[in-house]
């Protein structure tokens, strides 16, 4: 059956066009708000930064001084950034893998939760600044202490989110698997893992940021390379442009890694 447009009632033909224009206007307004609001805030922050730098010269350097310092020796910052990034990513990988394995074990053997969680909580509340010097004494002036600190920083968020996600399964779906006499392995990989993916990626976002922070902070002690060492060096010589350039590099690197995790989540989680 074909439905035609009533020529005696123009509103019938105009209404869909109006709705289409409203949707287009709403999308355009949403896009402008998404881009314009952060941009306006950044402009205001830049103005406030420049005013503070001009009024309190020992607090913040002018933005142009930071840009000039970066442009004058980009290889210096990139070389140190790669050192920090190597420790952060390796620590992130180790921390996430260990956390996933322990989470899977806790879900299948519940008595392990009482044994593992107090130790994990103790590691989480221990200050990184206190751990780093002890690791330098134990392992020497190399990358191992920084990787360990990054791994410890990334471990807890992934562990908590993994346990929560692996347990957050639909009871009815679990009953169906039980009715089909599915093994624990089948339930784990076909039900628990897919349903836990949003939790796992949420934990990954927290962990990758924590790993970068841990790597940078660990480089404050016992390191001559890395973004953390650059910050300490700049603090020693009161070199504000270098210090803030290093801070900006670490922040931008963390944002880039968060963007990569978000992109991977969009590719993997399609519901």
Automatic annotation (TrEMBL):
**Which of UniProt's keywords are assigned here?**
Cell membrane, Membrane, Transmembrane, Transmembrane helix, Transport
Asked whether the keyword Membrane is assigned, the reply is yes
Q: Which InterPro entries match?
A: MetI-like, MetI-like_sf
For this chain's UniProt record, which GO biological process terms are given? transmembrane transport
Source taxon at top rank: Bacteria
Q: Which GO terms describe its cellular component?
A: plasma membrane
Q: Where in the cell is it found?
A: Cell membrane
Q: Which residues form the ABC transmembrane type-1 domain?
A: 77-265
Matching entries from Pfam families are given as: BPD_transp_1
Which residues span the membrane?
28-51, 87-107, 119-141, 147-166, 197-217, 243-264
The membrane topology of this protein is: Multi-pass membrane protein
Report the PANTHER family cross-referenced here.
ABC TRANSPORTER PERMEASE PROTEIN HI_0355-RELATED, ALKANE SULFONATE ABC TRANSPORTER-RELATED, MEMBRANE SUBUNIT
UniProt family annotation: Belongs to the binding-protein-dependent transport system permease family.
Instruction: State the protein's name.
Output: NitT/TauT family transport system permease protein
Q: Which organism is it from?
A: Herbiconiux flava
């Amino acid at each position: 059956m074909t439905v035609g447009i009533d020529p005696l009632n123009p509103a019938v033909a105009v209404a869909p066009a109006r709705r289409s224009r409203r949707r287009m206007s709403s999308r355009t307004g949403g896009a402008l708000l998404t881009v314009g609001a952060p941009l306006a805030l950044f402009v205001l922050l830049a103005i406030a930064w420049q005013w503070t730098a001009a009024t309190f010269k020992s607090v913040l350097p002018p933005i142009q001084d930071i840009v000039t310092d970066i442009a004058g020796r980009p290889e210096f910052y990139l070389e140190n950034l790669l050192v920090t990034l190597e420790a952060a990513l390796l620590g992130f990988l180790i921390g996430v893998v260990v956390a996933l394995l322990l989470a899977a074990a806790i879900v299948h053997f519940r008595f392990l939760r009482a044994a593992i969680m107090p130790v994990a909580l103790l590691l989480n509340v221990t200050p990184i600044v206190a751990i780093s010097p002890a690791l330098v004494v134990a392992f020497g002036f190399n990358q191992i202490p920084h990787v360990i600190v990054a791994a410890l920083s990334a471990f807890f968020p992934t562990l908590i989110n993994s346990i929560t996600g692996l347990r957050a399964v639909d009871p009815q779906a679990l009953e169906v698997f039980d009715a089909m006499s599915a093994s624990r392995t089948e339930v784990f990989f076909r039900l628990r893992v897919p349903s836990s993916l949003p939790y796992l990626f949420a934990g990954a976002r927290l962990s990758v940021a924590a790993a970068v922070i841990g790597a940078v902070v660990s480089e404050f002690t016992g390191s001559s390379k890395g973004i953390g060492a650059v910050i300490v060096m700049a603090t020693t010589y009161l070199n504000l442009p270098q210090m803030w350039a290093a801070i900006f590099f670490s922040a931008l690197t963390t944002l880039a890694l968060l963007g990569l995790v978000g992109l991977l989540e969009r590719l993997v989680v399609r519901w």
